[in-house]
Design brief:
Bound molecules: guanosine-5'-diphosphate
Strand order of the largest sheet: 1-3-4-2-5-6-7
Order of helices and strands: EEHEEHEHEHEH
Largest sheet: 7 strands, mixed
Number of helices: 5
Strand content: 15-25%
Shape: globular
CATH class: Alpha Beta
Helix content: 25-40%
Number of domains: 1
Oligomer: single chain
CATH superfamily: P-loop containing nucleotide triphosphate hydrolases
Number of strands: 7
Mean pLDDT: 93
Amino acid sequence: MDFTKAEFIRSAASREGFIRDGLPQAAFVGRSNVGKSSVINSIVRRRDFARVGSRPGKTGQINYFLIDKKFYIADLPGYGYAEVSKAERDRWGRLMEDYFASGLVTLGVQIVDARHKPTADDVTMMDCFKANAIDVVVVANKADKCRPSELPGNVARIRETLDISEDTPLLSYSAVTHKDREALLIALDWALDL
Ligand code: GDP
């Protein structure tokens, strides 16, 4: 399977900007530099669609991408970037809380680093999805940087740290080699009921 058309629709800096047209929305979240933009680009097979390698945490908005006129990828601000002021961080926190509580989020796509134990911020993020009863797919990105023999242990550690059950899909992914891309597309298709 494949997605063929991807369009940037708009950015939202507050709840007034949320898209409310009834199409499913997949909220992509992750620590700055985890490869969130790269994962989005790998899904839509475009190199510069979501911006890669921009100054981490620079864009404190939700960026909406419409995929095949069927669903939105909502690209949320990357978290855990120390140079952002507390006022900015608080604003993003409120923006995310508003968005999660809005009932507009069909699915969370949480990107973590396949090499490492999830950070405290990653755990907080997952707790946010749980608190709002939002289904999640976890994408452990940069799996190409792990030895294949390390992956099962790393994935188990991620599952344990985020405290998610076997019902929550967890893919070891690579935005570089496109490892597990097909599995992610199938998970999105299924979870968004496309
Ligand atoms: P974002 O801040 O989360 O949007 O992260 P980016 O997509 O900008 O990626 C951050 C850096 O990680 C860039 O240098 C990417 O080329 C690199 N990167 C992203 N995904 C992968 C991956 O799966 N494997 C490897 N080896 N590098 C990656």
